[in-house]
Amino acid sequence: MAPLILFEDTRQQKGKHQNIAQYCDQNGILLIRTMLYVGDYQIAGRGGVSVDTKLGVSELAMNMYQEHDRFREECENAQRCGISLIVLVEEELPGGRLDDWRSPIGWDGLPMWKFDPEKLRKAMYRMQERYQVRFRFCSRQETGRRLVEYLTGVRT
Questions:
Q1: Which range marks the domain in which residue 69 is found?
Q2: Rounded mean pLDDT, 23-36
Q3: Counting C-beta atoms within 10 Å of the first and last residue's C-beta, which end of the chain has fewer, N or C?
Q4: Signed CA dihedral, 11, 149, 103, 70: sign only
Q5: What distance in Å separates the CA atoms of residue 92 and residue 39, rounded to the nearest whole number?
Q6: What share of the chain is helix, strand, coil (3-state, %, to 5)?
Q7: Cα–Cα distance between 93 and 71 in angstroms, integer?
Q8: Are 69 and 76 in contact (CB under 8 A)?
Q9: Which candidate, 90, 57, 52, 58, places its Cα nearest to that of 72?
Q10: Tens of pLDDT along 35-72?
Q11: pTM check: above 0.85
Q12: Number of domains the chain is built from
């Protein structure tokens, strides 16, 4: 049987997700870098689902606020092409709730990020309603497994 082939977008910074590459290597999944229209990862032959990865809540917030136009355009492109887009955030939420998330404290004793988690959650719901994008959270140790589960529809 042919191995599962996972495409990684060439715009994805090389080495940013070493945990995903390691998961693929350990599970006989061939990881190939190629340009994707939307998202960071897709399974070969299954272009109807794409996963966009974020290293944490702070990267998600930056995309939702500072890079909103680019992020919205990606969601619109996915919707227009009939691609189900899943945003997979590599950070476990305290108590499973975004509203309870707190910014890490910087060297100066102040929060590194200044945004309201409740407002971010509401903005995510609006994106979900408008573009059918789904947001999921997991630990970095789970990312590879969860990514493959979302893309194949098969829980392992």
A1: 5-152
A2: 93
A3: N
A4: positive
A5: 21
A6: 40, 25, 35
A7: 22
A8: no
A9: 52
A10: 999 999 999 888 799 999 999 888 898 888 888 899 99
A11: yes
A12: 1
**30-34: strand order across its sheet:** 30-34, 5-9, 41-43, 46-54, 84-90, 134-138
The structure tokens listed for 37 are 């229209």
Q: Which pairs from 146-150 meet CB under 8 Å and 24+ separation?
A: 146/88, 147/6, 147/20, 147/23, 147/41, 147/51, 147/53, 147/88, 148/4, 148/6, 148/23, 148/27, 148/29, 148/43, 150/49, 150/51, 150/86, 150/88
How many angstroms separate the CA atoms of 68 and 51, rounded?
Answer: 18
Which residue reads 């493959």 in tokens? Answer: 148
Are 74 and 85 in contact by the 8 Å Cβ rule? The answer is yes
- What tokens were used for 131? 């573009």
State the CB neighbour count (10 A cutoff) for residue 4: 19
